[in-house]
Structures are given as C-alpha cells and as structure tokens.
Design brief:
The protein is an alpha+beta fold. It has ten helices and 20 strands. It has three domains: 197 residues, 3-Layer(aba) Sandwich (Aminopeptidase); 108 residues, Jelly Rolls (Sandwich), CATH 2.60.120.10; 69 residues, Winged helix-like DNA-binding domain superfamily/Winged helix DNA-binding domain (Arc Repressor Mutant, subunit A), CATH 1.10.10. Helix content is 32%, strand content 28%. Strand 12 and strand 13 form a beta hairpin. The longest helix is centred in the C-terminal third of the chain and has 24 residues.
Length: 402
C-alpha cells in the first residue's frame, strides 16, 4: 500500500503527529517511564510556537511516522536543552559566503532543528519511507530560510543522519530524562537540500519544490487508473513508472517508461478531466506530488513559475501528435522502429553495467508500444542482438552505448 508523506496543516494532521510520538516513544519504546501519559499525546512548549512544522507519513489514512522541524527563535531550539551549540553557531557564520547570493553580506545564520523522529515498529525497516521523510524535511527547511540544521538524535540512528550530510559534534551523551544516549549533529541546509532533490532539482516543477508532498510505492502498485479523477502531478524521485492506455479493442498500450526527474500527470494541474492513461510502479518508487489547488495558488503568486511547465506541455503535445501519426499511418516496421527509439530514450542507466541502458520491458511490452505482432518484435530484437546493439529477455532490453 502506498505511503503519503505530507506537511501537517490541519488540526487533525497535527494531532496525528502528537499521538504518534506518544505511541512510539512511550508505548512502543518504553521511554519517559513507559506509562501512558494523560491524553496520550507527547508535547512540549515548542509545539505551541508558530515556527514549528510537523512532517507526517500515512499508510492509507493511518499515521505511521512523524518528524518535527523548528525554526530558531529568541527562546532557542529544542536541541539547545540537550547540547550547547554555541561553538557551532559561531563557526556557521563562516559558511554564509559560500551559500550563494542570498547570503552575501549577511551577518547572521538562520538555524533550524529536526527531531522527534517517531516511526511505528512495523515501518522501521522501510528505508524508502525514512528517506522520503528526510527529503520532505529538507524542503521544509528551505522554505523557512534555514541556513543550518542541528539535531540531537538517538545514538542508534546517528549513522543515518551522517548519510544525509550531517556531522557529529560530540560523542554520545547520556540523557536521564529520555533514558538513552544521544549524539548532537549539524549540517548546512543547502547540502541537505542537494542530497534530498538530486537530479529532480532540474525538473519542470522544480520551482514548486517547497510545495510538494511525497508518495512511496512498492513495485506493481498503481499510482492512478485511466478514467479516474485526477488532482495531482508527479515527478519521479527514484524508481521507474510505466504509463499505459487501453486501446478500443481492450489491449494495453504502453505510452512511456519514466525514470528519475520525469514529470507525469501534469494535465490534472490545469483541468478536472479524468485521467487519460494509467500509471503503475515498475519498481519501488518515490514520487514528488503537487496538487492542483496548491499549484494554482502558487501560480497566481509567482506567475513566472509557469514557463518551464508550459515548455513541457508543448513538448508532450508534439510527442503525442507524432505517436498518433505513427500508429495511424506508418507500416508495422516503421512503428517498431519508433517504439525501439522510444524504449531507448526511456531506458535508464543499468547500475550493474554502467555502459548500458536498461528498459524494463521485453518483447511483449515493445509489441504493445508498436501495435505489432510479438513475432515481428522477437525477430527484430534477435537481429539487433547478433549485431551487438542490445541484449534482451522476457522482461528487459539492455541497450549498448552508441
């Protein structure tokens, strides 16, 4: 079942975050005495501040993980109660000239903290969910203008933070109130964001990255069905997605295989028409999602953000026009050439063989793309294989570098 990661905005979502903390820290992990607290909510003074943000992960409608982000204020940060960050705050000034034009000449860094990471036991091995939560956290830190992020974490999870670019500031420290060892770490928010976005930073919706939610799916899970109502666009963060459509005679036609940074479902941002195609996860997938209401309100405030998206619309329309012409008028051999070219473009680098690109579909998939008999595809692929241009199986086509 897919897992949605969102920034809590409604009272119910914020309450879900407070309940999750209690459920995980007190009930499941036995911290804070291990006895249920009054109201079954774990809160402190920072939760009442306007500069606090809660990231919450839901499986279906059930909250399964949460994290709290706090922007610095005159009363400090939650982590200041566990470790003295004065020395790091002073050193952080030296980073400002390297953070780009917006920070040139500024005489003060802006700090944020991340903490209260609570994940229910059945989901603690879901590294994809944890990564997605931290990526969401990075964009939230960017949205409130943090230059640096500081954390104090359970010593058992410190290694995970180091992979995200954080550096330990001290050895583990025993905190009697929590009943556990903790480690203080710190990082530059720009580096955190760079890790979080990767090549997605160049996507058509990059300007809206501070408004994205995230969706994590397992292989073969459906993102949306053809004919269903749509209100979201998607950008592939990791994994691959297949876009398909039903032909009038009931066959499934593959329109595209999409890899990291690819945009799909974008027409739902403009109108409320049913989905024109289906989208299915070809592998474990993490998606960035943007809903229509947020997109349109952002576009009114920042109309310049529409430029890159409208370029994508134009390119997509040209591609679909070409596909329609090929399928309607081209002979089978030309349709197959077109499908092979599309498959090569959709293929992604093979992690096991860097010199090749992998298309996650075999002869049957290609036959559906070209609307030709599978025997014709097998013959063409076999010829190309003898020429050393590719290798194929029932499920994959591996294209050699040209």
């Amino acid at each position: 079942m897919s897992i949605k990661i969102t920034l809590a905005r409604s009272p119910q979502e914020i309450d879900d975050a407070l309940w999750l903390r209690h459920e995980v820290f007190v009930i499941e992990d036995g911290k804070f005495g291990g006895q249920a607290l009054h109201g079954e909510r774990l809160v402190d003074k920072f939760d009442a501040f306007p500069s606090v943000y809660h990231v919450v992960a839901y499986e279906d409608e059930h909250p399964v993980a949460t994290m709290r982000l706090v922007r610095d204020s005159p009363v400090g940060l939650p982590v200041d109660e566990l470790y003295d960050f004065t020395e790091f705050r002073t050193r952080a000034l030296d980073d400002l000239p390297t953070l780009g034009p917006d920070w040139q000449g500024r005489d003060a860094a802006v700090f944020g903290s991340a903490g209260m990471l609570a994940i229910r036991k059945p989901w603690r091995r879901r590294r994809d969910v944890i990564r997605a939560m931290f990526r969401m956290a990075a964009t939230v830190c960017q949205s409130y203008g943090a230059s640096h992020v500081v954390v104090v974490v359970n010593h058992e999870t410190a290694g995970m933070y180091r992979r995200f670019g954080f550096v330990a500031l001290a050895e583990k420290i025993w905190v009697a109130e929590i009943g556990n060892h903790v480690i203080p770490l710190a990082g530059v928010s720009q580096e955190f964001l760079s890790w979080a976005l990767g090549n997605v930073a160049e996507s058509a919706l990059a300007d809206f990255q501070d408004s994205f939610e995230r969706l994590v799916l397992r292989k073969d899970e459906v993102v949306f069905h053809e004919g269903s109502a749509g209100a979201h666009a998607y950008v592939v963060q990791s994994g691959e997605v297949r876009i398909t459509r039903q032909t009038p005679d009931g066959h499934e036609l593959t329109l595209a295989h999409l890899g990291p940074s690819a945009l799909f479902g974008e027409l739902a941002l403009i109108d409320d028409q049913p989905r024109a195609a289906s989208a299915v996860a070809l592998s474990d997938v993490e998606l960035m999602t943007l809903d229509r209401q947020t997109f349109q309100s952002q576009l009114q405030a920042h109309p310049e953000r529409s430029r890159s998206l409208f370029k994508v619309f134009a390119q997509r329309m040209r591609s679909m026009d070409k596909l329609a012409m090929v399928l309607a008028f081209a002979p089978p051999a030309e349709r197959l050439d077109f499908a092979l070219d599309t498959a090569r473009k959709d293929a992604t680098p093979d992690p096991k063989q860097p010199e090749t690109r992998l298309f996650r579909g075999g002869p049957r998939e290609l036959a559906l793309m070209a609307a030709v008999a599978e025997d014709l595809v097998l013959a063409r692929l076999a010829l190309a294989a003898t020429q050393g241009l590719l290798e194929f199986s029932d499920r994959h086509i591996s294209f050699k570098a040209l």
